[in-house]
Amino acid sequence: MVKKLVRDVSFSIKRKDENKKEYIEEFTLECDESMTILQALEKIKADKDGSLTFRRSCRASICGSCGMFVNNRSRLACRTKVKDMVDFASKEDLVLAIEPQKNQPVIKDLVVDIQPFYEKIEKNNPYVQEGKETIVEVDKTSYEQVNMVSNCIMCGNCYSDCTAMVENSDYLGPAALAKMFRFVADPREGQKKSRLKQLSKKNGIWDCTRCGMCVDACPKGVAPMEAI
Ligand code: FES
Predict the structure, then answer these.
(1) Among 7, 10, 72, 74, which is least packed by CB within 10 angstroms?
(2) pTM summary value
(3) What pLDDT is stored for residue 48 in this prediction?
(4) Beta partners for 7?
(5) Considering Cα of 212, then 216, then 218, then 221, what sign does the dihedral take?
(6) pLDDT given at position 43
C-alpha cells in the first residue's frame, strides 16, 4: 500500500471580528495528501478555534457555498486539496493563505455578504418570459448553449476574481451575465431583444474587460466570459 505523505501546514487566515477589526491568524495543522481545504478548516474549527467562521454545506462542489480566496485565487474549499496548493515534497515550511472572496463586503472571517451578488441576478428577471419572440422548437445547439451556463452553482468565484468589478462595483458581473445568456439563448424566451437592450446599458456586457479571470475561476466550466 502506498503511504500518504503527511506534513505540517500553516494556514494563514484573514479574519474579521465582530468589531470589524481585520487581522491575520495562523494555525498549524497536520495534513495528509487527501485533505481538502474545507476539511482542514473544519479541523481547525473543531480542534483549535471554534469561532472561525466560514460557509459550507454539500462538501461536493454542488451548493457553491464554500467559495474563498486561497493562495491568491478564488476557489471552492471543498474541491481544492491542500497538496495542490503547497508542495508536500518541499523542504521549506508550508504556508497556505486563505481570505474571504473579493468584491463583496465581509461579514465575519471568511463569510461575505452575498446579497448584492444575488440582487444583480434577481433584478434582471432570471426566468423565461412570455412574448412574441418565443420559438417553440428547441434544437440541439440551443440546448447545448443553455446547458453550458446552467451548470453555474452561484459560488461567486467568478465575481470575486472579476477585474472589472474592482473598478466598478455596479457592474453586473460574470455570473449574472452568464445567467442572462442562458435566457437569451433559450428559444422559448419571448423577450430577447428587450433583454439584450437592457444588458447593453451601463454596467452591463460592455463593461467586461475580457480578462478571462472568470473562466479560470469557475469550478464548473461555465466560462462566463464566453457567454458575455
Ligand atoms: Fe458545497 Fe463546497 S461545500 S460547493
Answers:
(1) 72
(2) 0.93
(3) 97
(4) 31
(5) positive
(6) 98
